[in-house]
Amino acid sequence: MTKEELVKTIAKKADVNQHVAQRCLNAFLETVKEAVKNGKQVKIVGFGKFAQVERKARIGKNPKTGEKIKIPAKKVVRFYPGKELQID
Question: pTM of the entire structure?
């Protein structure tokens, strides 16, 4: 599902126009992004949790040359699905 399709679905289910649904979705995404960037977790009970985690430095391989390269540590966003979202 694309963002456009998601906006259309939200608009239909919430009985609002697509412009309002898009503004709401963008506000949600921006809020989650800012919170996680600041080291906070965003938990939505039943849906899941967005959290910032530290990915350790590691040795990788250049796919073209086969040469070993060092991949530095970095912070990434991880999503942990809630029980209602998990697929059996």
Answer: 0.77
